[in-house]
Amino acid sequence: MCAARLEYSMNIKDMLMSDETLFKDEQVFNPNYLPDTLLFRDKELQALVSLVRPGLRGGKPHNTLIIGPPGTGKTTTVHFLFDEIQNASDRMVPVHINCKLSNTKFTVMSEVHKKIFGHRPPETGVPYTRVYEKVMNHLDRKGLSLLVALDDIDFLFEQKYANDIMYDILRAYEQYPRVRTGVVAILSREDFKEVIATKLYSIFMPQEVTFPPYSLSETYEILLKRAQAGFFPGVISQELVEHIAELTASQGDLRVGITLLSSSGIIAESHAKRKIEREDIDAAYEKKARFVTLHEKVAVLSAAERQMLLEIATDKDVRSGALFERMKGSFNKKSFSQALAKLESYGLIDSNVVMMGRGRSRVFTPRFPSEDILAVLKDFS
Question: What is the CATH number that goes with domain 214-294?
Fold first, then answer.
């Protein structure tokens, strides 16, 4: 009886009370969180500083292409760069734009407007040209340089606005002589370099800065710092952070590890635990973290495009004719082809041309495991 009471007492002691939490600062695990220290990206940051330095003196910053796999610190490094610019000079306006969210001429220029004037222009009733002229007149009158970071620039190509936006930004000096502009294009897909080189070469001509994947030891150090900042002491052991680092390295995306930290903490907390255990991490990985990259891609698809992805995932090696018959209630032939191109450009499907009798047909296959695609699509149903 005494042993049973002692075991029960220890269990109660180990339980998290309803008004307690494992998290010291949940914002640490937010995708937009900017850590105090930028780890393992000094070389890349210094390269970027040297390229934009002319703009700090009122000149034209060099155009730059930042390229590297997802989750390699590209966006975080640019945020650090822009913070340094704002602290060092009042002669340059740095604007970071998420092209997944702002992928038209108007929405891109609206973000520049917000940076300069503190608010976005009205979404209706104000033409793009008026917003553009207001921005450029202000820069021209003040003699300011403008540096625009277009994060995930491939989304602008999907909407067919990349050329127009680049031209309007980089050729502004032709109409506004005192304006000096530069673009930092951020790209996660190596295969898209050819598209940029072909379609934007005449006006862009960037210097390139490459972000390699983090090593296992670097991944561990970054995640350990994040865990120490986000959790109370003793919530997660260094051995478990090593386990998370190994899972993260297998995916090659730091965001997997950050999601794992947060999700395993939530799971442990939901079971009233005072510490994260390995089973919490493994559950978080299977439930959410391993789908981070796939979820991000699916999130920007329309409902019809998600249905098309579902058809391809459930019927591997489906031919274009058969697929169109299933999807013609949602697409005409032109929009059908555009949707397929979008899924392929986002790295969700692959296509191959096969011979059929006297003709040829395209066959589509999912690039991710079908069961993973089906699991992610459930989140949007």
Answer: 1.10.8.60
